[in-house]
Design goal:
Belongs to the thiolase-like superfamily. Thiolase family. With about 375 residues, the protein is an alpha+beta fold. It has helices at about 25-40, 65-75, 90-105, 135-140, 145-155, 160-180, 210-215, 245-250, 275-290, 305-315, 330, 340-355; strands spanning about 5-10, 15, 50-55, 80-85, 110-120, 190-195, 195-200, 235-245, 260-265, 295-300, 355-365, 370-375. Helix content is about 35%, strand content about 20%.
Length: about 375
């Protein structure tokens, strides 16, 4: 069977909502990443057969198929199509999956899988426009806010407020260390704004502490445990991954850096909603014919601290190998970009550590999760 390989991956710095990227349009932000990706790979965009982009809030500047618009803004030939998808927080990971599947089937040889979200310029839920859920849906399921789901997970698996805050503090500490050590330097491209170039993630807080986190008020449940401090940050950002068949990469003289071993997506409880990464992990490992102990690095999206803590408790994975450079609690969670952002970080960190296998998984709204396993190639 044909293999899908990763040739290049790049991302923007992640900005806070109403932060350093607030004046940058999302279609233009994604276009910058597309241009940088092909530039780094030394690939003429005329060879790209599709641009598949994840974007969750598809309205305003993120409407009208932002993948196609960004490709045009980037100066790609008009022959390069684009399509935009929404699988909630895992949208751009799903873009990677769709691109990989197109390549493995023989339909395509070169695909850019990417994602973008500007939560400053296109606020979360602005696409809903006041619509209510179908009564046929709510008659079957208790459809609640994700924050309430995160609270229920914390209660069911007996995570204390201190547990959640301690995990969150660690996320910031790891992200700050990664920035100081230059671990993100290769994966981040500079974004030029009126205030100068932006080259560093804006979210990590060096001055946070258990005391500061403990002082935050839970917004979802009275006397609850979930706060802004132990939840992912609303953010702006974009990321892109260049996928190819191994044969095409070798034909063009490009180095395949990773191969995609397994891709999976699962449905899970639509009320708890955030527990899917466990089942997705198990399914991906089975597809790859690997054990949990074979995986060198894990990336589980930090939608809320209770999500990776639940994953750790259920899988028994080594916490030292999880989100080693911090996660969305510190780095931010630009919804449509997060899957490609995490994949970019995972590939670069596997190379930095000279490790072989990486697994990432993302929980998604209404009870879903994607998981992917990649293998670093030696030649």
């Amino acid at each position: 069977m044909r293999e899908t390989v990763i040739v290049e991956a790049v991302r923007t710095p992640v900005g806070k909502r109403n932060g350093v990227l607030r004046d940058t349009r999302p279609d233009e932000l994604l276009a910058m990443v597309l241009k940088e990706l092909t530039k780094r790979a030394k690939l003429d965009p005329i060879h790209v057969e599709d641009v598949i982009a994840g974007c969750v809030t598809q309205t305003s500047e993120q409407s009208n198929d932002i993948a196609r618009l960004a490709a045009l803004i980037a100066g790609f030939p008009i022959t390069v199509p684009g399509v935009t998808l929404d699988r909630q927080c895992g949208s751009s990971l799903q873009a990677i999956h769709f691109g990989s599947q197109a390549i493995m089937s023989g339909d395509m040889d070169i695909v850019i899988a990417c994602g973008v979200e500007s939560m400053s310029r296109v606020p979360m839920f602005s696409n809903i426009q006041g619509a209510q859920h179908s009564k046929q849906l709510t008659a079957q399921y208790d459809i609640i806010h994700q924050g309430v789901s995160a609270e229920r997970i914390a209660d069911l698996w007996r995570f204390s407020r201190e547990d959640l805050d301690r995990f969150s503090l660690s996320s910031h500490q790891k992200a700050v260390r990664a920035i100081k050590e230059g671990r993100f330097d290769r994966e981040i491209m500079a974004i030029h704004t009126e205030n100068g170039p932006i080259t560093t993630d804006e979210g990590p807080r060096e001055d946070t502490s258990m005391e500061k986190l403990a002082a935050l008020t839970p917004p979802f449940v009275k006397n609850g445990k979930i706060t802004a401090g132990n939840a992912s940050q609303l953010s702006d950002g974009a990321a892109a991954v260049l996928l190819m068949s191994r044969e095409k990469a070798e034909e063009l003289g490009l180095k395949p850096r990773f191969r995609i071993l397994a891709r999976t997506v699962v449905g899970s409880d639509p009320t708890l909603m955030l527990t899917g990464p466990v089942a997705a992990t198990e399914k991906a490992l089975k597809k790859a014919q690997l054990n949990l102990e074979d995986i060198d690095l894990f990336e589980i999206n930090e939608a809320f601290a209770s999500v990776p803590l639940h994953w750790l408790k259920e899988t028994g994975a080594n916490p030292d190998n999880l989100n080693v450079n911090g996660g969305a609690i510190a780095l931010g969670h630009p919804l449509g970009a997060t899957g490609a952002r995490i994949m970019t970080t995972l590939t670069h960190e596997l190379e930095r550590q000279n490790k072989k296998f990486g697994l990432m998984a993302i929980c998604e709204g209404f009870g879903m999760a994607n998981a992917t396993i990649i293998e670093k190639l030696t030649s």
